[in-house]
Amino acid sequence: MVSLPNTPQPGQSLAPTPIPEPATGLFSTIGQDAPAGLVVFLVALPLCLGISLASGAPLLAGLVAGIVGGVVVSWLSGSQLSVSGPAAGLTVTVLAATATLGSFQAVLLATVVAGLIQMGLGLVKAGVIGMYFPVSVIRGMLAAIGLILILKQIPHFLGADTDYFEDNDLFQFDGLNTFSAIGAAAQHIALGSVVVGTVALGLLLLWDSAPLKRLKFTRLVPGALVAVAVSVLLNQLFKIVAPALQVQPQHMVKLPVVASWQTLLGEMTFPDWAAISNPALYGVALTIAVVASLESLLSVEAVDKLDPHKRKTPPNRELLAQGVGNVLSGLLGGLPMTAVIVRSSANINAGGQSRLSAFIHGLLLLASLLFLTPLLNQIPLAALAAVLLMVGFKLTAPAIYRAQWRLGWGQLIPFVVTITAILFTDLLKGVGVGLVVGFFYILKANAKVAFIEEHENQPGQLYLRLSEHVSFLNKAGVVQALENLPRHSRVILDGTRSKVIDHDVLEAIESFRRIAPERDIELELRGIRPVEVAGH
């Protein structure tokens, strides 16, 4: 069972805090969605800037992708709670693409083509692949993201990290890795950032406590917003009474100043249409499309698990929405985008109820470029790190590990392997490793349900009835069962109730039927048609 933000932990009674049905009107949830959108905006802003920096792109490119993701994709997507924007998982892809194509302008064109490919995948209903991710792998992905958030925010919390905010890979672009960055930060602690972060974290814990959660005010105003506001005031107080504690500029939000629409247009970058004749562009576009599609499908699957109302996102519609988003982002000078789990988790944790919160976050990103730069640049990164520390803990709470342990090895091992692989590689590679292990246990489980064994009254006679559907996944179990049959026995293999028996299984049965006399086994087949076996 996945532990959900603002919901009871496993083993607790659900009766005292029932989850209300989601409202249906467009603006019926504005009371919850507006503050949640503000929180997501405060989290998304530094992420957009940092991912631009890590991608070797103009800082504005990340903001453009975030704006398109919020203002456009939020309405096209079938997900009510996911947030789209530039993703840390694509930074390496964009860096490599820039080197391959020779300019960021060419990468913008590749992003447009990638969006068209994603739209095509949605139209041919390729999104169904998202339905085949085992639940244990999805839960492992969420728990790993929670651990990454905690580990990655510690240096920012300590005020001793010049890395960009939320560099999620083990090996960072600054030459350090997750653990060495923490060690380096521990040697250069900024006391002011620690105080600001601790106060913010304390406020978040207090806001999440049972006594305060019963108050109407705390339900209307998210703790993250209070923590950020108090952190700004506290840092301003340091400036007056204790200048040595003031958070340094490099550990504050950094937003480029754009005074007007004309200035904004002057700062924007647009696609290089001459690159359309470069064959390498299409390989880059395909890579972006595949990576962005997989990451989006994984993210919305995870968001659906976290959604208190358990709403389901249509995967094909999600691919179409992400495709349109990438076409627009590329045309306007933005980075490639995906549905992103960190901002989506923050949205859920802040009480978001509908797509309106993601839309509001997009509007705020747009407005911030023109009106809010001086105010937003007063936010210490330590405060945002505290917000993400809380989000991370909720995603990887001990109750989740206990729940997986109780489900048995078949669920626990893929869960743990997924977490470990993501921590030491990246999201997509880690999920890939988890899928391999998860499918191994699926194959193992299917091998055990190929038939029902029943003993007849006659001594030495064994009756095996095949299950209703026998696929190639059951082949190993069937072969192993036949190989383990005792010598000098009579066996009835009954397939009369089976609607489907895969050809691979039929071949295995026929091969055994031919060698059964050598082991003095009398094999009777019922309802199982003979097939030709290659090599016989």
Can you characterise this structure?
The strands form 3 sheets. The protein has a 4-stranded mixed β-sheet, with no helix packed on it. The chain has a two-stranded antiparallel sheet with strand order 1-2. Helix 7 (191-207) crosses helix 16 (381-395). By secondary structure, it is of the alpha/beta class. The model is unreliable at 1-20 (pLDDT under 50). It is elongated, with a radius of gyration of 28 Å. The chain contains 21 helices and 8 strands. The two termini are 50 Å apart. 59% of the residues lie in helices and 6% in strands. The protein folds into 2 domains: 30-422, no CATH class; 451-526, Transcription Regulator spoIIAA, CATH 3.30.750.24.
